[in-house]
């Protein structure tokens, strides 16, 4: 090996060691707590500053500064974060969404805090703890990795750690002190962050923004190791480090060479892009605090006040006016986050990239440097830049189709970092670039007026996306993606729409920002800004346009008026707390106000029916002297008849009977007395016989597998119009898998699903809904931020046919046409929510209703009323398939029962025959 190659290898090992350290720290924290610590780089930066402060600022000996920094400060930060930020969140349920936002909040807080304390400028006098000789650093890394690996594998603490990671609650029940394990994980993770920071600081720019970003760029190392394997992380880190170092030999001749060199010099970013966009995703849960609250409408007065405040700067002069110019521009950028994150519920940490591209393209187009295009006037350049950047929204929109939670966070972050490194930081794109204002708007006042007009256009666009059919579909997507898909919402195109619109708005705002300062400044659009803007929008109410405008004013105002870093620190503090108030500050205010004022109570009937008694006569215990009474429906209806909701149901069902669509109406059933049979065990009265109805949905030899495990083993099933078909069986029998295959959320390995003769095996869930297969969920899927009527309207708009009056009909049928219709679904009782979900499914005029444990969470009276409703729907001609554990409900409701065991249907027939037979169904959960 030549000396040059050897030297480059050594340099690469040095960089790779620091990356390996970061990987080890991220993996250990993730394993111990389930949190991907976005603040890791910021902790590294704070520790590097602290060591410099001790040694350079206060003149301490290096060993003392290093001990205090690495053995007290770094682990201390970890313990404090665990105790005061992440433990409360894990007590609240450990939603990864909230921990992600909190860790971004910690990042922003530390960056802002460091800028406040140590200033924003870069330092080049960080003390050198370990000599530049890479062998020393490598030794540190290998000792650490081996030590951690040994602890995890062979010690009691390691076993506890693995137990907590696998199932925290189970580990706690088993006597493990999960908090201690999490605190140790955080302390160690922060220690490695601190070590990375002090090792790197002498060789890179030590500043509050650059170092954290540099450290987070190597997160690919941990992702490549699937957040699990320390040896893989170390090997990948060293490999990329050496590769990156070797590629510095390239000497560019033209812009292509420069691009290749840029790739070589940023191999960790390339690895991040590959890890985040190509490798399978890490987590699947939603990445935003799930909306549990209704959106609070902005009072008109607030808009008037905002309008006046935004007009005020027109009367300003000098530096005040010059600063104000940034507010509308940043407001437009933040509105892009309202569209993507607030309304669409899609996490986007890379929005700064689109803003920067908007500014860059505007500058290139206005300068005549854009390939193949002539020089354009500034306003035309801005408009064309917006159009050009909009489709680039697919860069993050495409991954968002299949990625959620952490995976989407990483993908959008990676795109932000990639664009920053490969476009903004490259001289071939940006050298000698200036950006002027449109002619006629050169002065600050005129330009501000132009910005207000553009802001108004952006507000109108945002507003349009928050109203009407698309607005409701977006809200549904945000509130419950699976539920939205089940309601017929075409989720992938809707996500793309959100990201493309978001990219266009960000580009517009970015171009306006650039024109405001008459320059393209790459640092104004770096990925740290993306995190800050994301945090600012989330804490001020992600779905609030006014919140975005307030955030813009706050960020610009604090940056201009206070010491640098105040804005970031404030936003960080708020973001750290946001997980405790998932609805944002409005929710916090509401909670506070709620303590002072009693909440408005709404009286609701149960399923629209004043049913108070459990249905009695379907079962009689052996030896009981109680005679069988009339059948289920008469009992329920005799109570129900007193309620308007029941009248609507009866009328509805009778109407259906008159139209001749149904084989039986509830009234028909009341005429069928069910004699009791006195025998051992629970017995069932015979169900009324019906004439065979035509098949609507059929399954043919369905096979489904999870890895090597066969969950469905050749299922044949027929669901007929006007009948209730039930599937029962013990836990793990495969009922839910069958349900998912029919609903389109699981793709069978073999076999067919047919609907009205058409093969729909490969159709996605939303397409099945549009054909006429609606479903409900075991865990109720409603859209909490929408009102009851809006929930039902989503079902009607996206369902099989948009029949006029279908919303009102569904609301009436399920007894939701009173005051409750205009209440937000958040915080309604379970029974009402079940009705809302059913009404939503029904409003799309489905031919088949798939119901996954519809009685889950309902009390006896609600189950009784539910039976009436489902009977009425079947009587109307709808085909119902019910997967249910409640055998009482099945016996009283179903026409045909299929019993499943170990992935097969082991018996089928009318409930009285099937449920009486001994078999696996007798041990349901
Ligand atoms: N995503 C999955 N990955 C691996 N195995 C799975 C998955 N989902 C289900 N299984 C397994 O497939 C089998 C069938 O599960 P399924 O949920 O369909 O049964 P079930 O009858 O609905 O049970 P339950 O009544 O408890 O919901 C079970 O052994 C289950 O452990």
UniProtKB/TrEMBL annotation:
The chain crosses the membrane at residues 6-28, 63-85, 97-118, 138-155, 183-203, 209-225, 230-247, 259-279, 300-317, 323-340, 352-373, 379-401, 408-426, 446-465, 496-520, 532-558, 565-583. The keyword DNA-binding does not apply. It is a multi-pass membrane protein. Residues 642-693 are annotated as: Disordered. It is found in: Cell membrane. Residues 668-682 have a biased composition (Basic and acidic residues). Its main location: membrane. CDD domains: ABC_Mj1267_LivG_branched (cd03219), TM_PBP1_LivH_like (cd06582). Keywords: ATP-binding, Cell membrane, Membrane, Nucleotide-binding, Transmembrane, Transmembrane helix, Transport. InterPro entries: AAA+_ATPase, ABC_AA/LPS_Transport, ABC_transp_permease, ABC_transporter-like_ATP-bd, P-loop_NTPase. PROSITE patterns: ABC_TRANSPORTER_2 (PS50893). The keyword Nucleotidyltransferase does not apply. It comes from the Bacteria. One of its GO terms (molecular function) is ATP binding. Residues 697-925 form the ABC transporter domain. Residues 650-662 have a biased composition (Low complexity). PANTHER family: ABC TRANSPORTER ATP-BINDING PROTEIN (PTHR45772:SF1), CONSERVED COMPONENT OF ABC TRANSPORTER FOR NATURAL AMINO ACIDS-RELATED (PTHR45772). This is ATP-binding cassette domain-containing protein.
């Amino acid at each position: 090996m030549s000396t040059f190659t050897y030297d480059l290898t050594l340099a690469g090992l040095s960089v790779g060691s620091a990356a390996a350290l970061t990987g080890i720290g991220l993996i250990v924290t993730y394993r111990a707590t389930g949190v991907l610590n976005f603040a890791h780089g910021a902790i590294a930066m704070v520790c590097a500053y602290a060591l410099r402060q001790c040694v350079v600022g206060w003149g301490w000996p290096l060993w003392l500064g290093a001990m205090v920094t690495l053995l007290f400060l770094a682990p201390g930060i970890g313990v404090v974060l665990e105790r005061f930020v992440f433990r409360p969140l894990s007590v609240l349920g450990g939603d990864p969404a909230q921990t992600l936002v909190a860790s971004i909040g910690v990042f922003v807080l530390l960056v802002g805090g460091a800028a406040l304390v140590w200033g924003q400028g870069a330092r080049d006098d960080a003390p050198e703890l370990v000599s530049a000789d890479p062998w020393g650093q490598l030794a540190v890394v290998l000792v650490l990795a081996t030590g951690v690996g040994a602890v995890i594998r062979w010690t009691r603490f390691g076993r506890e750690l693995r137990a907590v990671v696998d199932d925290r609650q189970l580990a706690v029940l088993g006597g493990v002190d999960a908090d201690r394990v999490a605190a140790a994980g955080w302390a160690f993770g922060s220690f490695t962050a601190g070590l990375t920071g002090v090792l790197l600081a002498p060789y890179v720019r030590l500043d509050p923004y650059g170092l954290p970003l540099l450290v987070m760029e190597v997160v690919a190392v941990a992702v490549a190791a699937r957040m699990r394997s320390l040896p893989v992380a170390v090997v990948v880190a060293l490999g990329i480090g050496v590769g990156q170092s070797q590629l510095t030999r390239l000497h560019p001749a033209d812009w292509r060479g420069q691009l290749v060199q840029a790739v070589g010099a940023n191999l960790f970013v390339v690895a991040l892009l590959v890890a985040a966009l190509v490798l399978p995703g890490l987590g699947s849960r939603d990445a935003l605090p799930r909306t549990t609250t209704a959106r609070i409408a902005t009072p008109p007065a607030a808009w008037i006040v905002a309008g006046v405040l935004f007009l005020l700067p027109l009367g300003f002069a000098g530096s005040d006016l010059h600063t104000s110019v940034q507010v509308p521009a940043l407001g437009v950028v933040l509105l892009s986050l309202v569209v993507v994150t607030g309304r669409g519920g899609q996490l986007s940490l890379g929005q700064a990239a689109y803003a920067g591209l908007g500014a860059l393209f505007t500058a290139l187009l206005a300068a005549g440097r854009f390939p193949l295009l002539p020089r354009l006037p500034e306003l035309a350049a801005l408009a064309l830049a917006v159009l050009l950047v909009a489709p680039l929204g697919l860069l993050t929109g495409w991954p968002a189709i299949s990625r959620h939670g952490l995976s989407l966070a990483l993908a959008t972050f990676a795109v932000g970092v990639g664009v920053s490194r490969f476009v903004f930081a490259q001289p071939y794109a940006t050298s000698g670039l200036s950006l002027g204002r449109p002619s006629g708007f050169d002065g600050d006042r005129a330009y501000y007026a132009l910005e207000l007009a553009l802001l108004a256009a952006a507000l109108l666009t945002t507003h349009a996306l928050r109203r009407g059919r698309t607005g409701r579909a977006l809200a549904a997507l945000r509130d419950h993606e699976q539920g939205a898909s089940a309601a017929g919402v075409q989720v992938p195109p809707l996500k793309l729409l959100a990201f493309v619109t978001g990219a266009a708005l960000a580009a517009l705002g970015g171009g306006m920002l650039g024109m405001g300062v008459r320059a393209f400044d790459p640092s104004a659009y770096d990925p740290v800004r993306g995190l800050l803007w994301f945090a600012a929008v989330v804490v001020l109410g992600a779905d609030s346009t006014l919140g975005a405008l307030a955030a813009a004013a706050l960020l610009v105002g604090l940056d201009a008026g206070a010491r640098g870093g105040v804005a970031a620190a404030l936003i960080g503090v708020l973001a750290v707390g946001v997980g405790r108030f998932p609805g944002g500050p409005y929710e916090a205010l509401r909670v506070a106000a709620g303590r002072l004022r009693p909440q408005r109570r709404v009286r609701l009937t149960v399923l629209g029916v004043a049913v108070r008694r459990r249905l009695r006569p379907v079962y009689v215990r052996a030896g009981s002297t109680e005679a069988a009474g009339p059948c289920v429906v008469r009992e329920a209806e005799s109570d129900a008849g007193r309620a308007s909701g029941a009248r609507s149901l009866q009328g509805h069902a009778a109407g259906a009977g008159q139209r001749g669509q149904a084989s039986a109406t509830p009234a028909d059933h009341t005429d069928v007395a069910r004699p009791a049979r006195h025998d051992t065990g629970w017995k069932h009265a015979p169900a009324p016989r019906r004439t065979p109805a035509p098949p609507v949905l059929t399954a043919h030899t369905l096979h489904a597998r999870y890895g090597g495990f066969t969950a469905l083993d050749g299922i044949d099933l027929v669901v007929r119009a006007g009948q209730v078909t039930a599937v029962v069986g013990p836990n793990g029998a495969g009922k839910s898998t069958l349900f998912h295959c029919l609903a389109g959320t699981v793709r069978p390995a073999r076999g067919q699903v047919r609907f009205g003769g058409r093969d729909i095996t490969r159709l996605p869930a939303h397409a099945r809904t549009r054909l006429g297969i609606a479903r409900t969920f075991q865990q109720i899927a409603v859209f909490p931020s929408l009102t009851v009527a809006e929930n039902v309207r989503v079902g009607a708009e996206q369902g099989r046919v948009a029949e006029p009056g279908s919303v009102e009909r569904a609301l009436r049928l399920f007894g939701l046409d009173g005051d409750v219709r205009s209440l937000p679904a958040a915080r309604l009782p379970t029974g009402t929510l079940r009705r809302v979900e059913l009404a939503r499914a029904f409003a799309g005029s489905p031919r088949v209703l798939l119901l996954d444990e519809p009685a889950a969470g309902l009390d006896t009276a609600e189950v009784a009323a539910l039976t009436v409703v489902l009977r009425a729907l079947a009587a109307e001609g709808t085909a119902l398939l019910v997967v249910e554990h409640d055998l009482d409900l099945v016996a009283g409701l179903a026409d045909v029962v299929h019993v499943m065991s170990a992935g097969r249907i082991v018996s089928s027939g009318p409930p009285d025959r099937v449920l009486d037979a001994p078999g696996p169904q007798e041990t349901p959960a």
